[in-house]
Protein backbone atom coordinates (compact mmCIF):
# COMPACT_ATOMS: atom_id res chain seq x y z
CA UNK A 1 0.00 0.00 0.00
CA UNK A 2 1.20 3.48 -0.83
CA UNK A 3 2.34 5.64 2.06
CA UNK A 4 0.43 8.95 2.15
CA UNK A 5 1.77 10.14 5.50
CA UNK A 6 3.82 12.87 3.78
CA UNK A 7 0.82 14.40 1.95
CA UNK A 8 -1.27 13.98 5.11
CA UNK A 9 1.38 15.84 7.14
CA UNK A 10 1.37 18.56 4.46
CA UNK A 11 -2.42 18.79 4.77
CA UNK A 12 -2.16 19.05 8.55
CA UNK A 13 0.44 21.80 8.31
CA UNK A 14 -1.60 23.74 5.74
CA UNK A 15 -4.74 23.39 7.86
CA UNK A 16 -2.84 24.70 10.89
CA UNK A 17 -1.76 27.77 8.91
CA UNK A 18 -5.10 28.40 7.17
CA UNK A 19 -6.23 32.01 7.45
CA UNK A 20 -9.04 32.16 4.87
CA UNK A 21 -12.14 29.99 4.28
CA UNK A 22 -10.63 28.64 1.03
CA UNK A 23 -7.30 27.61 2.57
CA UNK A 24 -8.57 24.37 4.18
CA UNK A 25 -10.06 23.33 0.84
CA UNK A 26 -6.85 24.28 -0.98
CA UNK A 27 -5.09 21.85 1.36
CA UNK A 28 -7.74 19.17 0.80
CA UNK A 29 -7.35 19.59 -2.97
CA UNK A 30 -3.60 18.98 -2.71
CA UNK A 31 -4.15 15.92 -0.52
CA UNK A 32 -6.73 14.61 -2.99
CA UNK A 33 -4.31 15.07 -5.88
CA UNK A 34 -1.69 13.07 -3.98
CA UNK A 35 -4.03 10.27 -2.88
CA UNK A 36 -6.32 9.60 -5.86
CA UNK A 37 -5.70 12.33 -8.43
CA UNK A 38 -8.21 14.91 -9.63
CA UNK A 39 -8.48 17.32 -12.55
CA UNK A 40 -11.63 19.05 -11.30
CA UNK A 41 -12.39 19.38 -7.60
CA UNK A 42 -15.32 20.99 -5.81
CA UNK A 43 -16.88 20.93 -2.37
CA UNK A 44 -20.66 21.20 -2.21
CA UNK A 45 -22.57 21.86 0.99
CA UNK A 46 -26.04 20.44 1.53
CA UNK A 47 -28.89 22.02 3.46
CA UNK A 48 -31.66 19.48 3.81
CA UNK A 49 -33.90 21.96 5.63
CA UNK A 50 -34.09 24.11 2.50
CA UNK A 51 -33.38 21.17 0.15
CA UNK A 52 -30.59 23.10 -1.54
CA UNK A 53 -26.92 22.59 -2.30
CA UNK A 54 -24.24 25.21 -2.83
CA UNK A 55 -20.68 25.11 -4.09
CA UNK A 56 -18.33 26.19 -1.29
CA UNK A 57 -15.06 25.60 -3.13
CA UNK A 58 -13.89 24.98 -6.66
CA UNK A 59 -10.65 24.31 -8.48
CA UNK A 60 -12.23 25.82 -11.63
CA UNK A 61 -13.87 29.13 -10.67
CA UNK A 62 -14.60 30.15 -14.25
CA UNK A 63 -16.47 26.97 -15.20
CA UNK A 64 -17.80 26.15 -11.72
CA UNK A 65 -18.10 29.38 -9.73
CA UNK A 66 -18.85 29.54 -6.03
CA UNK A 67 -22.23 31.23 -6.07
CA UNK A 68 -25.92 30.66 -5.44
CA UNK A 69 -27.76 27.50 -4.61
CA UNK A 70 -29.42 24.74 -6.57
CA UNK A 71 -32.25 22.42 -5.58
CA UNK A 72 -31.43 18.93 -4.40
CA UNK A 73 -32.76 16.32 -6.81
CA UNK A 74 -34.13 13.05 -5.51
CA UNK A 75 -32.57 10.46 -7.80
CA UNK A 76 -30.13 7.54 -7.66
CA UNK A 77 -27.29 9.93 -6.81
CA UNK A 78 -29.30 11.23 -3.84
CA UNK A 79 -30.08 7.67 -2.72
CA UNK A 80 -26.39 6.71 -2.87
CA UNK A 81 -24.86 9.81 -1.26
CA UNK A 82 -27.59 11.17 1.01
CA UNK A 83 -29.54 8.09 2.06
CA UNK A 84 -26.86 5.38 2.11
CA UNK A 85 -23.95 7.81 2.66
CA UNK A 86 -21.80 5.97 0.20
CA UNK A 87 -19.54 7.32 -2.50
CA UNK A 88 -21.19 7.87 -5.84
CA UNK A 89 -18.86 6.69 -8.58
CA UNK A 90 -19.25 6.96 -12.34
CA UNK A 91 -16.37 6.08 -14.64
CA UNK A 92 -17.63 7.17 -18.05
CA UNK A 93 -19.07 10.38 -19.39
CA UNK A 94 -22.14 8.40 -20.49
CA UNK A 95 -22.72 7.34 -16.86
CA UNK A 96 -22.11 10.88 -15.61
CA UNK A 97 -24.68 12.18 -18.10
CA UNK A 98 -27.38 10.03 -16.50
CA UNK A 99 -27.08 12.03 -13.27
CA UNK A 100 -25.41 15.38 -13.95
CA UNK A 101 -26.90 17.88 -16.42
CA UNK A 102 -23.47 19.46 -16.97
CA UNK A 103 -21.89 16.32 -18.44
CA UNK A 104 -20.99 18.17 -21.64
CA UNK A 105 -18.95 20.75 -19.71
CA UNK A 106 -17.36 17.99 -17.64
CA UNK A 107 -16.26 16.31 -20.87
CA UNK A 108 -14.88 19.57 -22.31
CA UNK A 109 -12.71 19.87 -19.19
CA UNK A 110 -11.18 16.48 -20.00
CA UNK A 111 -13.06 14.61 -17.31
CA UNK A 112 -15.10 11.44 -17.60
CA UNK A 113 -15.12 9.89 -14.15
CA UNK A 114 -16.26 11.10 -10.75
CA UNK A 115 -16.25 10.25 -7.06
CA UNK A 116 -18.65 12.14 -4.80
CA UNK A 117 -17.47 11.49 -1.23
CA UNK A 118 -20.13 12.24 1.40
CA UNK A 119 -19.11 14.36 4.38
CA UNK A 120 -21.19 13.47 7.43
CA UNK A 121 -21.10 15.24 10.81
CA UNK A 122 -23.52 14.77 13.70
CA UNK A 123 -25.29 12.08 11.67
CA UNK A 124 -26.11 14.70 9.03
CA UNK A 125 -24.73 14.92 5.51
CA UNK A 126 -23.18 18.40 5.38
CA UNK A 127 -21.57 18.17 1.97
CA UNK A 128 -19.69 16.23 -0.66
CA UNK A 129 -16.15 16.24 -1.96
CA UNK A 130 -16.40 15.99 -5.73
CA UNK A 131 -13.40 14.63 -7.59
CA UNK A 132 -13.37 14.33 -11.39
CA UNK A 133 -10.71 12.99 -13.74
CA UNK A 134 -10.37 11.14 -17.05
CA UNK A 135 -12.65 8.21 -17.89
CA UNK A 136 -12.03 5.03 -15.86
CA UNK A 137 -9.66 6.87 -13.49
CA UNK A 138 -11.56 6.04 -10.30
CA UNK A 139 -10.84 2.35 -10.00
CA UNK A 140 -12.11 0.39 -7.00
CA UNK A 141 -8.64 0.82 -5.48
CA UNK A 142 -8.77 4.60 -5.83
CA UNK A 143 -12.29 4.71 -4.41
CA UNK A 144 -11.07 2.72 -1.39
CA UNK A 145 -8.14 5.14 -0.99
CA UNK A 146 -10.50 8.13 -1.14
CA UNK A 147 -12.67 6.65 1.60
CA UNK A 148 -9.71 5.72 3.78
CA UNK A 149 -7.53 8.83 3.35
CA UNK A 150 -9.92 11.68 2.55
CA UNK A 151 -12.99 11.24 4.74
CA UNK A 152 -11.55 12.65 7.98
CA UNK A 153 -9.55 15.41 6.25
CA UNK A 154 -12.73 16.44 4.39
CA UNK A 155 -14.54 16.85 7.70
CA UNK A 156 -11.61 18.85 9.08
CA UNK A 157 -11.49 21.09 5.99
CA UNK A 158 -15.24 21.71 6.17
CA UNK A 159 -15.12 22.64 9.88
CA UNK A 160 -12.00 24.78 9.50
CA UNK A 161 -13.48 26.65 6.53
CA UNK A 162 -16.66 27.42 8.48
CA UNK A 163 -14.62 28.59 11.49
CA UNK A 164 -12.61 30.94 9.26
CA UNK A 165 -15.63 32.22 7.31
Keywords:
165 residues, alpha+beta, Beta-Lactamase, 6 strands, globular, GAF, GAF domain-containing protein, GAF-like_dom_sf
How would you explain this protein's 3D organization?
- This protein has 165 residues and is α+β, with helices and mostly antiparallel strands.
- It has a single domain (5-164), classed as GAF domain (Beta-Lactamase).
- 42% of the residues lie in helices and 24% in strands.
- It has a 6-stranded antiparallel beta sheet with strand order 3-2-1-6-5-4.
- Helix 1 runs antiparallel to helix 2 and helix 2 runs antiparallel to helix 6.
- The longest helix has 25 residues, at 140-164.
- Residues 26-147 form the GAF domain.
- It holds the Pfam family GAF.
- InterPro entries: GAF (IPR003018), GAF-like_dom_sf (IPR029016).
- This is GAF domain-containing protein.
- How would you classify the helix and strand content by structural class? alpha+beta
What is the first-to-last residue Cα distance? 37 Å
Radius of gyration: 15 Å
Please tell me the CATH architecture by its name. Answer: 2-Layer Sandwich
Beta fraction: 15-25%
Low-confidence stretches: none
Beta strands, count: 6
Roughly how much helix do the residues carry, as a percent range? 40-55%
Number of helices: 6
CATH class: Alpha Beta
CATH topology: Beta-Lactamase
Strands ordered across the widest β-sheet: 3-2-1-6-5-4
The count of domains is: 1
Multimeric organization: single chain
From N to C, what is the helix and strand string? Answer: HHEEEHEHHEEH
From the spread of the alpha carbons, the general shape counts as globular
What do the pLDDT scores average to?
95
Largest sheet: 6 strands, antiparallel
CATH superfamily: GAF domain
Organism: Nitratireductor pacificus pht-3B
InterPro entries: GAF, GAF-like_dom_sf
Protein name: GAF domain-containing protein
Domain GAF: 26-147
